[in-house]
Request: fold
Amino acid sequence: MTMHWFDMNKIDYSFGLVVNKFYHNFSLAFSNEMLGMSLTFIIMGTFTGLGFGLYSLTIKSQKEEIDSHINQVKENLVSRIQLGENGQTEFKSSLRYDYHTKSPNVELEMVIVKTIAGFLNAEGGQLIIGVDDDGQILGINKDYLSLKKKDKDGFELKIYQLISKVIGHEFCHLTKLEIYEIEGSDVCSINIQKSKNPVYVTQKGDTTFYLRIGNSTKPLSVKETVDYLKTTI
Reply:
């Protein structure tokens, strides 16, 4: 009301004048003439405050629930890493960073794609990138540096681009990619569902059927592929 009065009367502001006018309006707010308006503002303010308070509590509760879920998933991932590789779990040190040459190597990307295809053709499983064969956490942070978009989003985008290009975009929905920070490094977990249709890897004009067998991914010959598909149909 005070600021509105200054604007309507086009009077220059001064600290003393504003304080006096505010005190005057504040006194009027509790007079008999203004009591109705004041009560209205009090009621509106109370309900607005309660509304925002309840909304904030809801958001806080949801955030705590999400954080708890993330921590639980991270703990499960750490436990899975500690158990080591098996028929349902595969470790890869990186997407494209070569730890032997200490430089990016895009040929390593095909190893990731073949592993995903192998899981799709078998019973599904989990591919964990950023962990060596012994379960040591290496992280995928060095992979970021060789990507166009050097962060988690860029890494995820690259994975799905590879799946779409080499396997087929129709299989992307069977993979769920999550990135978690473990021991100060980002680790990528890809949960892969079994595909109802055969999945082939197309590379340099050649098409190959890969299958997860035991704790490794193997390419099958044409006859082996036909025989295997007969047993799954």
Remarks:
- Strands lie at 89-92, 97-98, 103-104, 125-129, 175-182, 185-192, 200-203, 206-213, 216-220.
